[in-house]
Every structure is written in structure tokens, then in C-alpha cells.
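Quick one, C-alpha cells below. Sequence please?
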């Protein structure tokens, strides 16, 4: 469904309700599509802690800040 910007502003609550039921609404300006209201995707389920365990590694030097970068943060020219 295509609605113009003025109608979208005046009917926003109703359009959001329609979108929440699964409909997609296209908003147009001068008859040309410029935006689309779509339903927000539902969560796939509860998250389980540790799902990435063993799949992510942190380099041993992760916390080491190079001297040049530390100087730049202090506003010094390296």
C-alpha cells in the first residue's frame, strides 16, 4: 500500500497498527516511494550465555597501547 507523507503523518498510529499485523506500508512523496514501514522482526528466542565460547579469541597484546597512539590521546605530536 502506498500512502503520501501527509496521510502518513495524520494516520501514523493506524499505519503502525496495520504494520504490527504484518502489512508493509510504503510512504511516498509526489507519488514516488521514499520510505517503507515494515514489521519489526521478532526475537528468535531467549539468548543463551556462552554461545560463542571457543569461537572468539583475544590477542595476547590486546591491552597494549602503542606509544604513538597513547601520545595522540594526550594531544602530543608523535
Amino acid at each position: 500500500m502506498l500512502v503520501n507523507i501527509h496521510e502518513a503523518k495524520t494516520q501514523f498510529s493506524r499505519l503502525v497498527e496495520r504494520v504490527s499485523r504484518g502489512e508493509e506500508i510504503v510512504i511516498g512523496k509526489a507519488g514516488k516511494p521514499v520510505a517503507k514501514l515494515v514489521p519489526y522482526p521478532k526475537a528468535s528466542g531467549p539468548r543463551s550465555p556462552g554461545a560463542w565460547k571457543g569461537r572468539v579469541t583475544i590477542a595476547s597484546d590486546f591491552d597494549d597501547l602503542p606509544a604513538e597512539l597513547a601520545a595522540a590521546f594526550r594531544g602530543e605530536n608523535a
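The beta strands are 2-4, 25-29, 32-37. The first helix runs from residue 5 to 10.
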